[in-house]
Amino acid sequence: MAAVARLIGVEPEVLSAVPCPVLLSELAPTLDQPLLLQTTLQHAKEEHTQLSNFDIHACLLTAQLVVERCKKQHYAMGSLNHEEAMALNVITQENVFCRKLDEALCSKLPSNLSPFIPFLQLVHQAAQHCGLTERVVHCGSRTNLKPVLQEGSSVCWSGIVYGIGTSKPLMGEGFLGATGDRSLVTLTVKSAVDITGLSCIVMPGQSQYLVLPMVSFFVRKCAILASGITVVQLEQKQEAQVDD
User: Fold this and answer.
1) Which secondary-structure segment (H or E) carries 23?
2) How far apart are CA 149 and CA 147, in angstroms?
3) pLDDT in tens, 6-15
4) pLDDT per residue as tens digits for the range 126-166
5) Which residue, of 75, 89, 182, 228, is most buried by count of CB atoms within 10 Å of its CB?
6) Phi first, then psi: what are they for 161, rounded to 5°?
7) Can you tell me whether residue 232 is helix, strand or coil?
8) What is the per-residue burial (b if ≥16 Cβ within 10 Å, else e) of 79-117?
């Protein structure tokens, strides 16, 4: 369950003082068919030697089960189609595909990103149909972010961030706990995507939000409290740099 509270790419080498210049549209291959989830995942497997058929099938099966659950529970998916809903679910999965996607995003290297471009385009398409809204999103990291986030600076978060609507659940033992290095991060986001119900993590009563990759934030606050926890406040400076 700690995955709900994670921040992808908190290491110093994946943070930048300027927005990441990579635009997904510039890297995208020409596709002869619509952006279907299986097509985009298969493209990633064919160009990424460390992904197997099992990894792709696991993504598809999990996403199918979650979306079917949403339909049975009459979860409102708005204008999302079936493929888009499944793609948003895949983002929340903890598996080989997602780990490799995170690594590629945080590397900022076009060669590493190329296998995942069609999938990221489908996610962006889904986000647009789901609706981008301004939200305050809370997430956490079991690391001390103070050394890499300076108040008044700007950072580009290359990876995918997703969190919840309130901070209280993150302070429990199942998440950040009361000891050791830990950071509670509050993000004021202009383009959050509500993935409540589509996430692999079920948290009754909690809204869950996704922030698209390559978003520039202003560091409003980064301080260590007496309890030992690092409190971080980030404000989005601009929309996610992802084009159709």
Assistant:
1) none
2) 6
3) 333 333 333 3
4) 988 888 889 999 988 888 888 888 899 988 877 777 788 88
5) 89
6) -115, 130
7) strand
8) ebeebbbbbbbbbbbebbbbebbbebbbbbeeebbbbbb
Neighbours of 151 (CB within 10 A): 13
Residue 7: strand pairing partners: 161
C-alpha 168/C-alpha 73 separation (Å) is 26
CA 205, CA 214: separation in Å to the nearest integer? 29
Q: What is the DSSP letter of 226?
A: T
Residue with tokens 């926890």, as numbered in its chain: 229
CA-based end-to-end distance of the chain? 32
Rounded-to-integer distance, Cα 118 and Cα 42, Å: 10
3-class state of residue 68 by DSSP: helix
How many residues appear in the chain? 244
**What DSSP line would sit under 30-58, residue for residue?**
PPSS---HHHHHHHHHHH-TT--HHHHHH
Contact between residue 138 and residue 185 where contact means Cβ atoms under 8 Å apart: yes
Cα 104 to Cα 25, 34, 167, 233: the distances in Å are 16, 24, 29, 26
Do 59 and 97 touch, CB atoms closer than 8 A?
yes
| Spatial separation of the C-alpha atoms in residues 138 and 126, rounded to whole Å | 22
